[in-house]
């Protein structure tokens, strides 16, 4: 880590939790920049998956089944 990054980190940890979260959100937002090449790859993947579904090569799964598979059951 550079000296600047270390100094920023040292100052950031002194902030109240709410302000630290705001800093984190701003930093994460700055990393979420559009990437046309990546968007094109995802669009092709979606088209390929839809075509495979229409050809009967893959089956659809109900959303309720997917959610139930990943829900954590609460103890009684």
Core attributes:
76 residues; mainly alpha; 68% helix; flat
Describe the structure concisely for a colleague.
The chain is mainly α and 76 residues long. The protein contains 4 helices and no strands.
Write the layout of secondary structure elements.
Elements: H1 3-12, H2 17-31, H3 36-54, H4 63-70
Main beta sheet strand tally, sense and closure: none
Inertia-based shape: flat
The helix fraction, in percent, is 55-70%
Rg over C-alpha atoms, rounded to the nearest angstrom: 22 Å
- Proportion of strand residues: under 5%
Q: How would you state the average pLDDT, rounded?
A: 93
Structural class of the secondary structure composition?
Answer: mainly alpha
| Beginning-to-end CA distance, first to last residue | 47 Å
Number of strands: 0
| Number of H- or I-type helical stretches | 4
pLDDT below 50 for ≥5 consecutive residues: which ranges?
A: none
Element order: H for helix, E for strand:
HHHH
Describe this structure in words.
The protein is mainly α. It has a domain at 36-70. The protein has 4 helices and no strands. It has helices spanning 3-12, 17-31, 36-54, 63-70. The protein is flat, with a radius of gyration of 22 Å. The N and C termini lie far apart (47 Å).
């Amino acid at each position: 880590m550079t000296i600047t990054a270390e100094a920023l980190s040292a100052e950031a940890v002194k902030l109240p939790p709410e302000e630290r979260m705001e800093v984190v959100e701003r930093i994460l937002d700055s990393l979420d920049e559009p990437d046309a090449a990546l968007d094109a790859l995802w669009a092709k993947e979606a088209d390929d998956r839809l075509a495979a579904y229409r050809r009967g090569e893959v089956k659809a799964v109900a959303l309720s089944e997917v959610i139930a598979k990943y829900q954590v059951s609460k103890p009684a």
